[in-house]
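Q&A FORM
Asked by: J.P.
Topic: structure of EGF-like domain-containing protein

PROVIDED:
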Amino acid sequence: MILNPNELNFYASTEKSETTQCKLQYFIMISPEPGDVPPTGTETFTADNSPISLIPQISLVDDSLYVRFSVYQPFNSKEARNITMKSISGIFLDQFSLPAKCITLPYPLVNVNTDYNDWKFSSEELGYYYTYLQFNLDRYLNIPMFTLLDTTSPYTCEFEQYGYTILKLKCYIVSGDYTDPLGLTFNVIIKDPTPGINRNTTYTIQSFIDANADIPDGYPLKYRDVTKVSYQDYNLFVYLNASDDVYFTTAIVQPLNSVYLNKLVFSNSTSRTLLFFYRLIEDGQKVLIQNSYSDEMKVRFETQFNFQTPITLIDSVDVTFSQSPNTVDSQLFLFSYEIDGEYYDYDLTFNYGDNSRVVSYDYPFGTTLVSGGLMQANIIAYLPKFVNLVGSLSAQNLMNPSIDVFSKDLALNSLWPADEDEPGLISIQIIPIGHQQVIVRVNAFDNTSGVYSIQIYELFQLYSCDIVSGTINNGTFEKYFDYRYSITSVPPFSLIIITDLAGNSKTEYLAKFPQVPLIPDYFYYDNLLAEQFKRPISRIYFKSNNVDLTSKNVKNSLYIYIENSHPEDIIRLEINCINVNVYGYWNSKLSMYQADFTLPMNMHSGVIPYNVYYRQLKYDSIYLPPTGQLSVVSESTDRLPPLIVNITQPQTDYVDGGIRIQWTIKIEDSVNGFSIGMAQVRCLQDPYNSYTYEFVQNGSMYLEEYNITIIVPNTGASLIYNLVYMELYDRAGLKSVYNDLSYIQSINRKNPVVFQDVSPFCKWDSFYSNFLTIPINGVPKPDSQPPSVTEVYQSSPSIDVTAVDRSFSLTFTIVDIDSKLSQFHVPKCFLHGILFQTVNVTAKLIYEDIPLAIANYTCIFDNIPYGFGYPGASLYYTISGYSDIYLNIGGTSPSSKIGLLFTQSMPIIETVLPIPQQSNGDLTIVGKNFYRAQFKIKVEYTDETFDYITNITKKYQSYMVITTKYKEIRFIWALSLNDDIFSRYIIPEYTIPIIPVIRCPGTPECGGTQNGVCQPTGCQCTPPWTGLECLSQIINTTPKINSTNPSINTDFNTTLPDGEQVSLRTLVSFMSLNELNQNGQAILSHVFTTWIYTNTTSKSSLSDIQEYTYQTTLKNSLNTNVTVTLQYFTKGQVIEFANQKLEMLASTIKYRIDMSPYPFQSTVNSLRLIMNTALESNSNIKSSCSSQESIDTDDSQYVKLQVDTHSLYGRFIKRGIIDYRVQTISNTIGADSTTSSQESNQTSYSSSTNVGINIPYYKYFVTLDPDFSILVDTKGADTKENSLCNQSSNDDSNNSKLTSIQIAGIVIAIVGALVALGVGYAFYRYKVNKRKKEQQRINKLSDYKF
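REPLIED BY: S.T.
REPLY: Here is the structure written out as tokens.
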């Protein structure tokens, strides 16, 4: 079995080939068949009786042989290679063939995307333009690796590949002053990758800059430079006329090298506003910003900013480390450090040897004292009793340069055993127990300190506590993983790292450890293009593809089907320009994935770019079909968040309980309107705790004043309060942020904050920082010592970290002999385990005596993580964050041990899957301690009955499979053999689906098993059968196209299935468009008279069709255009309309009807589109019957006109596209052409009716989409209860000998959205000797008024 087929399917290139041959690398598994001698792992292999090119890597796992080897194959060779396997002594064992194609890239490389000059751009990222090339390739080639741009032009492009075939271009103008005229084209060159061949395929692409784009004299540019206290924002607003066709963008030349950050933030019918935003956070940074624009066919560059930060932006922070003495435990090391300056939350990466863990030092973690601007804190390191080669502890902080690296040599106990040997890996098993849910089982060893950590790629991480058998020195480790929400890739250079307690590690590479099994339902990094090629998007649409966002947020849904996908998978929809990132799930009714999202109001009109992720595969909307394009329209664009246009000096007054501080701000959001806001205030002397104030819109949403009010304690001391953080949201969800702490809390220097954090002060021309600070005058604080912790009580002396109940509590007292306690500062409790493991909870006040400055608190650790602190022997606690009213904040150091137990004696149920259980009742229970514990399983159902489960098919330490009754379950219990409760798992509420009894029309249903099968959606007919009951067959016809109107009026001859020749004539008539009042009465009728005809076959986007367009204009105040597009399908195919998949049979005639705005007399009025359908038969049967039927379902309406065995059958889907949205509509069968009454005619040999499509009030447009097919029917009208018959006395005529299949019927299947289309009428003639009488009847029918 070949385990890596994708890696063998590539074009010869310098990446994967040598001078004249391909290097094919195989990874195969050989398993013995029953009775065979198991392999030994010492076998030898030859290719075509010659030694293979590389020494194979062979490993043996569970009697299966895993072999990696390579062979070389000449270019353009397609021959297989024969591999012979022999024993080490030379005995023949087996021979097998392996595919060995070595194909060179075709030349020239053909681009099949003819619209590649149609550039796209995003209003959220101006300056970048997008298009794509599509090649007819069927194997791997790293196309961007061999793609380059004509370097003589000012253009530059970035390339991204999707599958084997798509190359996306992201292009822009590079920096530099080009004096030559701007070229209107540039070249993209793809080099032939074949070694030794020097040839290129060149594509000339039109520029995304319009030939007439220029900047007129006196161009109105306005710039604003706003300086902040702790960083600087530079804002550039560019104001354009809406009619200007201008290429204009701003680029940061230094230090980011042409990163475009312009965004369209406002537009209406007369103007546009662009915003460039840049935040400066580094001391002494030099910045050069240029504007690029086109002028007289040249690229011009204007240097707008060239500056260096004039002030120190980041406050000075001094850090001092020292090692503290410790008498609690020789394994416990304490390092205290002092911070002088404002320093807040940060992450430290601790390293002890190769053991590494990131610890979030979120205040008050580690804090022992805060007073007078000085903070003291502890680094707590509980280390194993083993000496490694490094002998040092280091901590790294990558976010702040003041603490880049902290490293301390440790004085380790000389009596501790030395461990300098690396651990080892024996085997890895990956056991699927659900879709993308696995049990990972690893056998590993370490002779001295023991195994501590096992990391497999970037996906799986196991620790000592995951041991299920043996010891950490030589044992089996097992853990459950669910990676359904993971998009992490496994690159070919992925590592498997095993680390022991002492910090020694062993690294295995995927390619050198072939016994690692493939991860089920997971893609590997080097196979992603192949996986995407095998999984194209075959169906995609939105609930609404065209959305009106004028002053309203709109909910929408994406529906997508990816071939070879799995229903239990999820997708992720990413719309970067509006920060949408949502998951989508399988919709079983539609058999598609569905992702729901909301579009914010007043977006810029146009096509919205987005990405879809399936597992690790990325799909870009740029190359998706028209149904996958998302367009929006707004009368005005507003992408600028709420801004502060005024702020007053803060005011203070004394109130009960403290001092009230109040700021008054005026918020403006002129289009979207302000919604909610939040502000935070901090004391300069206590920068670690915030007062938060939230407020909502009141008064005018467009311009209004708001008060930010907080009450602080009145300590009598001199303090300073600052408004340090603010978020303002508008109704579209756009957010402005003022964050005076962002340089510490959220700034990553490699990824600076950009537009999404635009400041609400961005339009200010002067400093505002003076308005954000207010001093509280008082006396110097009389106390500099924090409170202290006394009388700490533990709920138990030890914790079993493998028990079901892993709760633990601390009860303690805070006292202060000098000052009152602060009620605002609530302490936190921390537990510390070996190698930097930590958990914390916030304390709860249980008693307080304010005059005596005494408070009692409790910290309850409800559920300590399983195995926390193992394999250490102890845990330690600290308490931090309590304070007096003078902001002297205190904390404790570790002072006593908590015993740690690791018994694994109680079963723990953690999850149950699948829910609902499988139809056979099987459930997989995942948890801990199943193998070592003695227990039984009890299943309690929702009807309060229960079962004891004895049929456990598999029982391992972390999972087991049981069989239950197939009904709803409420609880699953793990009980002792004496019925004591070990563990209880509450099943989420669910319902076992009831499989409905499906009924379909017909006797037998669907015409019998030869004609079709009954499905939940109706009859699924077997070709050539079709129709509601699968009793009709398609008649292949070619219609006569009318050049004066869109009616079908065609005479033709055809042959029925039994060979009989039949003459047919079809007619479909468009009659009128009526306006109805709210009572359904016709108040105005527009009769269709004159049409303009165009043959548009060559312009159609569909293949195998003929297309013709008809247009007429209604004479009203808006000159409403009605366009009818007639399409004739020569072959069957599936199309999408109004979010529904429609099957177009061969010889189907489909209409698409588009209507422009209509001047309704009232918004409660509606329209009705009238079409006429009629049917007459002229057979020689002297007794004939006719009938009319209509059927109404959830999705469609059906009408059937029948004369004898001739039928006219129509289906009308109850939906249409109205004003960019798919809407439900109704249809009226038998509607009068000029009034609202019903109109139909019926005789024994003819039947006709009108069909009216009811269109609700609309503003922009309507789209309708009916289709028609001519079919042979098999049932007579005389079998229907409502038939109208004319009996003849001559019953023994020759006609009585005809079978039903010899009589032709017309079935016109109208599949419409907003289309209640009637279906043309047809005339049947069966015998040549009756031609004269038949012609008379046809002439009579022609007198009908349509």
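FOLLOW-UP: The longest helix spans residues 1331-1342.
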